[in-house]
Write a structure and sequence with these properties.
binds S-adenosylmethionine, Rossmann fold, about 45% helix, alpha/beta, globular, seven-stranded mixed sheet, about 20% strand
Length: about 250
């Protein structure tokens, strides 16, 4: 049974769904990915290597998991997370507070982190603003992936790097079968147990199935203006990290 919404209703559906699961989002992510989601985000941030005094933007930031990782690279910089779901950013707020307090007591000077409300398809920032752009598990949820990649390109400065972390499907037939069983049969029950919301975790595998393959996504980035686009598969091919640059 497909629970994917019609295209015209997708943005509202997605915003409401994340608002419902926001309080348990981080916990479910850690458990469902066997704790691999943070190392994947670390990989993304090291792939774009933000400048120490730079300006970074994380799109579809949710609870802001990328922000402390970006800010750790940027002691004199600022990392901004943008999302159209306020409850997700609200759920992540204590995490940002804790990060800046721990940083201060450990005499590490953390970069500034901030949340901003906004739509990935119409970012509330001027052209050529950011040195670094990241996005994780958000492109599956936007109504127009090409337009979102182009918006990222618009707000990126010439010389900026961008990285996109998203789900993929393992190439090896056996792994692919195991991954499909886990994602489609087990994950919805983990979601139900930990967040009380089975449908949100049925949407996850179904939206992943409908998502472009890594080579197709790479071409969509190129079409949006990104250059030197490459990608790397992690987690036995269950996720892909695409990287590009704006010249
Ligand atoms: C699966 S969560 C990912 C959160 C975070 N990036 C992470 O790595 O865990 C997807 C996020 O994208 C946001 N999102 C989806 N479509 C969006 C849009 N058009 N504009 C802004 N945020 C959007 C959702 O609200 C949600 O918080």
């Amino acid at each position: 049974m497909s629970i994917l919404p019609p295209q015209a209703e997708k943005a509202t559906y997605v915003e409401r769904m994340f608002a419902r699961i926001a309080p348990s989002y981080d916990r479910v992510n850690r458990i469902m990915t066997f704790g691999l989601d943070q190392p994947w985000r670390q990989y993304v941030v090291s792939a774009v290597a933000p400048p120490v005094n730079g300006c970074a933007l994380d799109i579809g930031t949710g609870t802001g998991d990328f922000l402390p990782l970006l800010a750790a690279w940027m002691p004199d910089g600022i990392a901004v997370g943008v999302d159209f779901c306020v409850p997700m950013m609200h759920a992540g707020w204590p995490k940002l507070q804790m990060y800046s307090n721990v940083g201060r007591t450990a005499s590490i000077r953390p970069g500034v982190t901030a949340f901003a409300g906004g739509d990935a398809l119409q970012l509330p920032f001027p052209d050529n603003t950011f040195d670094t752009i990241t996005t994780g598990f958000a492109m599956r949820n936007v109504t127009n992936i090409g337009a979102a990649f182009h918006e990222m390109w618009r707000v990126a400065r010439p010389g900026a790097c961008m990285a996109c972390l998203e789900v993929a499907r393992p190439q090896n037939p056996l792994l692919r079968l195991g991954h499909q069983f886990y994602f489609e049969q087990i994950v919805p029950w983990i979601g139900l147990l930990l967040s009380g919301d089975r449908s949100a975790y049925m949407y996850l595998p179904q939206s992943a199935r409908a998502f472009p393959t890594p080579p197709v996504l790479a071409q969509m980035m190129r079409d949006a203006g990104w250059e030197y686009v490459t990608y790397k598969l992690l987690g036995m091919g269950s996720v892909a990290v695409h990287v590009g640059a704006k010249l």
